[in-house]
Amino acid sequence: MLLRALLTAGVVALAAPAFAQTAQQQPMEGRKLLQACGPDIQNFCSGVQPGGGRIASCLRPHIRQLSPECKGQLVEARARRQQQEQQQPQ
After folding, report:
1. Which long-range contacts (CB under 8 A, 24 or more apart) does 28-35 make?
2. pTM over 0.85
3. Per-residue pLDDT tens digits for 3-17
């Protein structure tokens, strides 16, 4: 249950704005996610126009079917984003 929640949060993180990331970190994270999740995106969401969270919305119902590589990158991306949000002054 916790893993599913983390994975779902990771998919949602694909569409979330990247707070406190440098210009270099943001594209690198996107490339890692695309490399890991590209086959899953092609398999489940090939007809979906990117942008506006549409890819994340498309992947969400397929979370259990995503490749281990994609799930791992999604979890890592979400963890990095949470850490960055905690470091932001409030």
Report:
1. 29/77, 29/80, 32/73, 32/77, 33/70, 33/73, 33/74, 33/77
2. no
3. 444 444 455 454 444
